[in-house]
Amino acid sequence: MFWLASLFGLMAMGGVMFVADGESDSDEDGTAVGPTSPETDVTIPDLLPTGGSSEGDDILSGTSDGDDLNGGDGIDQINGYGGDDLLDGGNDGDHLYGGDGADTIFGGAGSDLIHGEAGDDHMQGGDGDDRLFGHFGTDLISGGNGDDIAHGGQGNDTLHGDGGDDALHGNYGDDTLFGGAGVDTLFGGVGDDLISGADDAGERDYVNGGDGDDTLVAGANDVLTLGDGEDQVIVGSWINGDDAIELVDFDSSDDQLVLLWDMQNQPDPDIEIEADPEAPYQSIIRINGAETLRVNTSAGITEDDIVLLDQTSSALTGQLPI
């Protein structure tokens, strides 16, 4: 039923108009939900071809070949069109569109808008509060510093929030999301996703698996919503009694709780489960006496629902704060 084996193999300017992604992942009361609309095409006007870089507010357009376009200083719009392009917005808040091809796009300083579009693109927001949209292909998206919003779109994408309070949306496909530092909101969307809020310093992340059989790595103080599917929740020794995880919708008939532990150097942990007298359907899990999880489940949870796994044997170890 569960795939424990997967743990070992994981890892406008002027009149220029654009249409951003039409997807939404939350309702009015903040409850995380799945994508509500298909990917929206981005319309780019036909521009006169230019190239190189300058210090003004530029409009640069590429060709059907692989182009190297650098906006330099100023608020620029750069369109790669066809080919495997290298686009660099430089300073200030730029608009960058990859077009067809496997493009590499750097936002640079400023709050940038980046669309990868077709192809397997690599996008980096850099400094500033950036918005990044992968659209089609298997994309690699890094927000950089700032409070960023990133959408993978269609394809098996990898998204890194890096610094700042970020919102990452996998959308469709089997995606991998890493929140990084800050108070992040991570939505897996549709597909079998790997989502980690663990590499932080106790800052609360909000993680939602969405549809699919997801693996969620919980960081200290995080709030996890599993969604539909047969999901795994991974916790470990980095959680202490002051930073307990809240698990909103655990179903022991479908989901599994995995405890990573240093079994080579530490004795087996003492696991206690007790009902919360002040919260119906909530159980408190203590590991070696420290409150580690609060689990909301109408069916209850027992020690049989918890799998103990040696953390040194997991390929996820490099992504964990241990």
UniProtKB/TrEMBL annotation:
The keyword GTP-binding does not apply. The keyword Mitochondrion does not apply. Keywords: Secreted, Signal. It is found in: Secreted. Residues 23-85 are annotated as: Disordered. GO terms for molecular function: calcium ion binding. InterPro entries: Hemolysin-typ_Ca-bd_CS, Hemolysn_Ca-bd, RTX_toxin/Mannuronan_C5-epim, Serralysin-like_metalloprot_C. GO terms for cellular component: extracellular region. Residues 1-19 form the signal peptide. PANTHER family: S-LAYER PROTEIN. This is Calcium-binding protein. It comes from Parasedimentitalea marina. The lineage of its organism: Bacteria, Pseudomonadati, Pseudomonadota, Alphaproteobacteria, Rhodobacterales.
